[in-house]
Design brief:
about 450 residues
Length: about 450
């Protein structure tokens, strides 16, 4: 009789990825669903790679808008329902009829030498779960590259590892050219007036598209031969004040290089999580004091640019101002001040109380303080210097014109024009020459 096969009851150790997902779920809260990490959040995270607070909150999938409201510092982020519906309607119009208009714009702006798109393929990318959709997107890209025609991928799903945590990204569209190249298409609802759009909005769209290009390159690297991911994306916007689509080619090589370098610099999420106190949780259902302590246990790097990119900016700004951090005044100023990290340190060094006199930063601060004191000082009648700058009295003989137009005592007094005297100088009560009211013909 063959020996009975008993099941192996030894516990199988969890993998590193499983442990990380469990740890992030504990930080987020057991009953809180994860907030997906999109390309806009990744672009903002790459712009401030030194902020560990945002890195762990985004990696754990914490809804920062809800968290900011629970902390008492609600953010002003969000899109109006009207703008949301208008954007969806415009995108549907661009992709209508199998994406014929969109493919025409890609051919016109990016690949005029290729054959005109008579009708591109639009593969079905539906699958179960984000992992399934990511795999289906990679398969569709491989098949479209081998087919050698125009193919439109509507809302594909791409995976990108950020600081050891996976992020799933969904661009508006990806177009496969007949030569096998891939192009990212970004559709925005802000207008393009006379062929140009708001530079700030175009820059934000370029940074967001650079994240998609970075994720697409990882997919292309797994194919042999690897297809070309074009560094020029197509930005589609409404033309002037209509709902007709127009497009412009945007080179994102600079944004791509910056984003890749900054994302590589991010501290891994598990390293930040291991440094947190035991039992740390960012669930918005916690008491305010406990939630504030949990958020403050992660160091943040606030800068004024965070106000346009992070939902927790108001909370971090209040804390930064309370601590007197010079970073709250701007990154450029922080870089100029070197080791002086607080406003009190800067003022103390400028007034000569602390600091090395041979330090170039301290020397520049003291020179600036001396110039300010010299500019504010006013010579007194006795020949001394006062630290205050009082308003000059009328006719005081201090060499400055008084408020009523009188000249200094050592200058000849010019007679003031009388009202209606016929001279060409207007009087102080708003009357024009010859006594006529101003503005009369």
């Amino acid at each position: 009789m063959p020996p009975s096969r008993e099941p192996n009851r030894q516990s199988v150790p969890s993998t590193r990825g499983t442990r990380l997902r469990q740890r992030l779920a504990e930080l987020r809260g057991p009953a809180v669903p994860p907030q997906p990490l999109d390309a806009r959040a990744l672009a903002a995270l790459a712009a401030n790679p030194g902020c560990r607070r945002r890195a762990i909150l985004d990696g754990a999938g914490v809804n920062k808008a809800v968290l900011a409201s629970a902390l008492g510092s609600p953010s002003a982020f969000g899109q109006s329902q009207f703008a949301f519906m208008r954007g969806n309607a415009f995108e549907a119009r661009v992709k209508a009829d199998g994406g014929a208009e969109l493919l025409r714009l890609v051919h016109e702006k990016l690949d005029p030498g290729a054959e005109p798109p008579a009708g591109g393929a639009v593969p079905d990318l539906s699958a179960v779960g984000p992992e399934g959709r990511t795999a289906r997107t990679a398969l569709a890209l491989r098949e479209a590259t081998a087919a050698g025609g125009w193919t439109l991928l509507d809302h594909p799903l791409l995976a990108l590892e950020v600081a050891g945590s996976p992020a799933f990204l969904e661009p508006d569209a990806v177009v496969v050219h007949p030569d096998g190249g891939w192009t990212v298409v970004e559709i925005k609802s802000f207008p393009m007036l006379d062929g140009s759009a708001d530079p700030a909005k175009v820059g934000a769209a370029a940074r967001q598209s650079a994240v998609y290009v970075l994720a697409l390159e990882q997919v292309a690297a797994r194919l042999d031969p690897a297809p070309e991911v074009r560094p020029t994306v197509l930005l589609v916007c409404p033309k002037d004040f209509s709902n007709l689509p127009t497009a412009s080619a945007v080179d994102v090589r600079k944004q791509y290089s910056v984003t890749r370098r900054q994302l590589d610099r991010l501290t891994r999420v598990e390293d930040i999580a291991d440094a947190l106190p035991e039992g740390t949780c960012f669930s918005p259902d916690l008491p305010a004091a406990e939630l504030t302590a949990a958020v403050e246990s992660v160091p943040a790097t606030y800068a004024p640019e965070c106000l346009a990119a992070c939902e927790l900016a108001f909370h971090c700004r209040a804390r930064s101002r309370a601590e007197g951090a010079v970073t709250s005044l701007g990154r450029s100023l922080r870089a100029e001040l070197g080791a002086l990290t607080t406003v009190d340190d800067v003022l103390s060094a400028a007034h000569g109380h602390t600091g090395d006199p041979e330090d170039p930063t301290v020397e520049a601060l003291r020179r600036a303080a001396a110039l300010r004191t010299e500019a504010l000082a006013t010579p007194s009648p006795a020949g001394g210097a006062s630290n205050a700058a009082p308003s000059p009295a009328r006719g005081a003989g201090n060499g400055a014109p008084s408020h009523d137009g009188a000249a200094p005592d050592n200058e000849p007094q010019l007679p003031r024009p009388s009202r209606g005297a016929g001279n060409c100088a207007p009087s102080h009560d708003g009357a024009a020459p010859d006594g006529r009211p101003q503005g009369s013909k």
